[in-house]
């Protein structure tokens, strides 16, 4: 039998990108609940931020020239706390001011209280020569009215929620959450909780993929249906897919997509739509499938089949499914982040395929390698904090600069 042509990761990503057209529906959610959602509209500021000149310190607001003119000793003026609007500063005076309080008209400088002394006669002595304009946060220095502050396609972070709130936005327009049904395949799979670990029948294994796939999808904003383990029969597999297609945007399976395997996923999807089985030129994660289930002549639902080996499933999720579901939500940043880092180990087994090795950052600024890179060893992904993207045919020597992709890129 001829070996199938391997598809490069970049070609696979390109093809998937064409299929992953953004879902058009949007929803308005409270800014409180919008973390990690994808903005569907630009956020434009309706005010200057800060909205008024205010003090960056507890201290005294004064006129820079008055300090020199009065030989550093000024009359104490009004007291200005945050949230209060002051009168104008009187010539020769220093107004007591607190952090965040509006700077009074006529003041151009704030001196922090540690550099001031309140004299017994009630006057204020400025102990060090200030710099004009110091300790004042100027109106509009962060954002000006009318400025585009967050762009459509931005994945909201805790900091961006805070920024939106500081502009007075109690709600945000975001992309609808994709609905994803997760299926497992394989007669060997047993759900944790149904059998005591000590009583696991010979040849059986606990279903692990289902747990991390659900968690990964949820971190990416998806609503996940746990669609269970697919029965080993074509008709029931077909039925399960057809049923799930009615209420989901994506059906995701793991296992049963190895080339040449006797399985029911392939004929089931083919009878409901179309399916492409790919052999990816990456390790782990060679078998991968993309398909569509037709609902009617104009609408169809996405299907993605991941390899069964847990690390292969995880790696292909990060490299291919993550960009796919982010794109469904209209995200602009869909590629995993990557960084140039120093390898603190040797990898002498150059592979024909592009390899994604499980590694961990060390405190010396380099990467360590997990000692077992088998695609079934999930421990490697728990020990590690990311992947080393090693080009095909390449060995790694200690000190080499390599491309590192953190697991939690965009997930946290
Ligand atoms: P397959 O791609 O179906 O040939 O599966 C490859 C390997 O992954 C086999 O050792 C399976 O037992 C294992 N596997 C498949 N699905 C799962 C799953 N949901 N959880 C854990 N291991 C799995
Ligand atoms: Mg299987």
Would you give an account of this structure?
The chain has helices at 9-19, 64-69, 158-166, 209-219, 234-245, 265-272, 310-328, 379-383, and strands at residues 26-30, 43-44, 54-55, 59-62, 73-80, 93-97, 109-112, 116-118, 124-126, 136-137, 148-150, 171-175, 179-185, 189-190, 205-206, 223-230, 250-254, 273-279, 282-283, 287-294, 300-306, 339-343, 354-361, 366-369, 386-390, 401-406. The protein is an alpha/beta fold. The protein folds into four domains: 9-24 and 177-328, Molybdenum Cofactor Biosythetic Enzyme, Chain A (3-Layer(aba) Sandwich); 26-49 and 141-175, Molybdopterin biosynthesis moea protein, domain 2 (Alpha-Beta Complex), CATH 3.90.105.10; 54-137, Molybdopterin biosynthesis moeA protein, domain 3 (Beta Complex); 339-406, Beta-clip, CATH 2.40.340. The chain has a six-stranded mixed sheet. Strands 16-13-17-21-20-18 form a six-stranded mixed sheet, sandwiched between helices. Strands 22-24-23-25-26 form a five-stranded mixed β-barrel. Helix 5 crosses helix 6 (265-272). The site of adenosine monophosphate (AMP) has 19 residues, from strand 13 and helix 4.
């Amino acid at each position: 039998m001829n070996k199938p042509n391997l598809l490069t990761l970049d070609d696979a990503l390109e093809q998937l990108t064409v299929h992953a057209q953004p879902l058009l529906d949007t929803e308005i959610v409270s800014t409180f609940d919008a973390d990690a959602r994808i903005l569907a509209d630009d956020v434009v500021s309706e005010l200057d931020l800060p909205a008024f000149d205010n003090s960056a310190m507890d201290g005294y607001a004064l006129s820079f020239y008055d300090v020199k003119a009065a030989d550093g000793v000024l009359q104490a003026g009004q007291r200005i706390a945050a949230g209060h609007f002051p009168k104008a500063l009187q010539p020769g005076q220093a107004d007591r001011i607190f952090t965040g309080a509006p700077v009074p008209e006529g003041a151009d400088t704030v001196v922090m209280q540690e550099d001031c002394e309140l004299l017994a006669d009630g006057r204020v002595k400025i102990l060090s020569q200030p710099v004009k304009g110091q300790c004042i946060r100027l109106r509009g220095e962060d954002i000006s009215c009318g400025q585009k502050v967050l762009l459509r396609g931005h994945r909201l972070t805790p900091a961006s929620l805070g920024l939106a709130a500081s502009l007075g936005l109690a709600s945000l327009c975001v992309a609808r959450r994709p609905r994803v049904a997760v299926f497992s395949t394989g007669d060997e799979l047993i759900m944790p909780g149904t059998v005591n670990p000590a009583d696991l029948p010979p040849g059986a294994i606990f279903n692990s993929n289902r747990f991390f796939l659900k968690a990964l999808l949820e971190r990416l904003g998806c609503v996940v249906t746990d669609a269970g383990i697919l029965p080993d029969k074509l008709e029931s597999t077909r039925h399960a897919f057809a049923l799930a297609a009615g209420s989901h945007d994506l059906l995701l399976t793991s296992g049963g997509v190895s080339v040449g395997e006797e399985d029911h996923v392939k004929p089931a999807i083919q009878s409901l739509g179309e399916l492409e089985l790919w052999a990816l030129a990456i390790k782990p994660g060679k078998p991968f499938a993309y398909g569509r289930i037709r609902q009617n002549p104009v609408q169809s639902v996405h299907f993605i089949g991941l390899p069964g080996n847990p690390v292969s499933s995880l790696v292909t999720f990060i490299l291919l499914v993550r960009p796919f579901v982010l794109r469904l939500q209209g995200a602009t940043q869909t590629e995993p982040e990557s960084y140039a880092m120093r390898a603190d180990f040797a990898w002498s087994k150059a592979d024909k395929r592009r390899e994604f090795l499980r590694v961990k950052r060390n405190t010396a600024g380099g990467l360590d390698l997990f000692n077992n890179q088998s695609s079934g060893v999930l421990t490697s992904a728990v020990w590690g904090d990311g992947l080393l993207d090693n080009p095909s045919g390449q060995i790694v020597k200690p000190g080499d600069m390599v491309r590192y992709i953190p697991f939690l890129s965009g997930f946290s």
